[in-house]
Write a structure and sequence with these properties.
2 copies of one chain form a homodimer. Chain A has a 3-stranded antiparallel beta sheet with strand order 1-3-2. Chain A has 7 helices and 3 strands; from the N terminus they run ααααβααββα. Chain A has 125 residues and is mainly alpha-helical. Chain A is 69% helix and 11% strand. At the A-B interface, helix 2, helix 3, helix 4, helix 5 and helix 7 of A face helix 2, helix 3, helix 4, helix 5 and helix 7 of B. The structure holds a DNA duplex (30 and 30 nucleotides).
Chain lengths: 125, 125
DNA sequence: ACAATATCTGAACAATTGTTCATATGTTAA
DNA sequence: TTAACATATGAACAATTGTTCAGATATTGT
């Protein structure tokens, strides 16, 4: 009880010490839950070695079919196909099908920039 | 048995049709396994909503203590501390401890750029 | 020395992920 | 139609992940 009283006495000041202007300022500029979810999803799309290989390949050659990508990455067709679907769902790659062949390419220039920036970070560490 | 024989006959030509110049060119420029691993790890560090919130907060205010980050993100101290360790291990954030308070900040400008580029991608979709 | 504060940590758990396997779909050539 | 080819897919599996819980450190003020 005594403790509780003591806590009450200092709680206000303690909290106002912690929740200072910095925190309030950032909180005001905070984006929605959905925003951070989508942002995380975008990065997650690039967070697997198989997928970074695919993206890297598509940075060098802007159009590649599944068979080519499989040959370059060196896995099974199934694994590549599954990963391409992930990248498609995340809007990182697009494809157009001509006959039985599906030609994949990066969805837009942002992907190139994003990838290049990550590449720079890794190479300078 | 017959099938097997037939397959053998066409396997060679089929492969040479697929492994065309494009594939060879990309294969020549392929980076090491470690490189793609590290690159994926960097993106993975940003692939969780809690961590994107932390990084976003540190983009707005370049120095924040754990308590502040906890208040901003709105989780438990433990969860934040664990995520900060992850970010530290990935060299995305650094910290300097003054007394009992640990002040966290983004490790270098590449992180700002990388994050900003991801942000742009999400906002334009 | 003690209580309060700020941060960190290990274990345990459910949830998610990437690959493999077997098979399905759709297209082309014979 | 049938065989060969290019790609996609569902189920199942081990491996990884993020959070919570309980408690450990370490620093400061009294």
């Amino acid at each position: 009880m005594l403790k509780r009283f003591k806590k009450k006495k200092s709680a206000g000041t303690a909290k106002s010490f912690i929740e200072k202007d910095k925190v309030k300022a950032v909180k005001k500029k905070m984006k929605s839950e959905t925003f951070f979810h989508n942002l995380a999803e975008t990065f997650k799309a690039m967070s697997d070695p198989t997928r970074t290989k695919i993206i890297y390949a598509l940075c060098l050659e802007k159009e590649l079919c599944v068979h080519d990508i499989t040959a370059i990455v060196g896995t099974t067709n199934s694994a590549i196909s599954h990963q391409l679907r992930t990248l498609r769902n995340m809007k990182l790659v697009k494809y157009n099908k001509v006959g039985k062949i599906a030609y994949y390419s990066l969805d837009d220039i942002h992907i190139n920039n994003l990838f290049a920036e990550g590449l720079r970070h890794v190479e300078e560490k």
